[in-house]
């Protein structure tokens, strides 16, 4: 098992502008969406959640999904549950893949690969969120629909007095029919987010609603009761818009928000010991003193990790009791911290977006910075002999070029097409960017079939 303790560039995607990264606290899989509206997937696939044959249990490197699967519509967003994935296209359609035992794919039965959720065909869906075994969709009218497991009220479709009965009798029964969350029907919802078994929704005026599993105060209502329907959180109900929320996110057992002042709020349980643990959970949203004065631009919470991005300061901050290096603090330093710390390897790089999963983290950074190409790439390539991969000569180093994707070196005059001088900016070899082929990911042939490390191995063996 390889762990990455410092942020790495994903080699396969260094030449693809990425618009959105998606994972969640319960997910060991991820979706990456390009500016051109194409989706890549990686991670666990044991239930077919990546839309691939589940015999391929783990997909180690990003694999592009065939746009034909989505009727050539552009992918705009996605969500990941424990064992399922939803993908939304610019036509407002939702496609699902993976585990459907509790109806979390909005239909009955299991169909391999990504399949259109027909029960949502009358809606133009603009956003989705997934908890462990349930799904939440938002349409362009600001209405919220849910399906999957309703065991703890996480679908928001039952009265709390019925909840205990439901949990006892029907906890494991599937609820595959997308159902309107009536408790939000006079609101225009703009964002939805899920923890393992709880849900938050943000409306266009900055009010925040929560429902589902209430343990450790993650719903933010100063009590641990489960809620079967939405309830507004007091801390974001100020008469002043600036004190209401602009962004919400859920961790596994906690929740976070940013208000109009870009101040971060946190509630629930996110630690194993001390303040903020099961013994002393935060029962309602509290501003985090450690981050006073920081203008937080994006937030994420994974299974055990917490993140705050500060775009204006080119700083990324992380904390949490983690095991797998998912805070990205760097090699040869502490890997876990209950106090917010800067992610030092990313200092000076403007962070655009972050998504935190179970044991891993994905970020998008602004590439117009000389520090970004200096980050290590993953996977690493084995050291090969120095010199030009074409003519095998090691001399004339002044004319040796390095491919910014595979790290092969090639003389300017051995390159295809030939170059007369070292080019400015990024350069990719003819294997990474075949000449005569339109540079587009609309045909699978433009994407190398083998991962870089596999090609390197093949080369070394040859
Ligand atoms: Zn050469
Ligand atoms: Zn190359």
TrEMBL record:
Return the PROSITE patterns for the record: RCC1_2 (PS00626), RCC1_3 (PS50012), ZF_PHD_2 (PS50016)
> Where in the numbering of this chain does the PHD-type domain appear?
385-435
Q: Which residues form the signal peptide?
A: none
Q: This protein's superkingdom?
A: Eukaryota
Which terms are listed as keywords in the entry?
Answer: Metal-binding, Repeat, Zinc, Zinc-finger
Has UniProt tagged this entry with the keyword Signal?
no
Q: Which ranges of the sequence are coiled-coil?
A: none
Which residues does the annotated region (Disordered) include? 435-462
RCC repeats sit at 37-91, 92-141, 142-205, 206-261, 314-367
Name of the protein in its database record: RCC1/BLIP-II protein
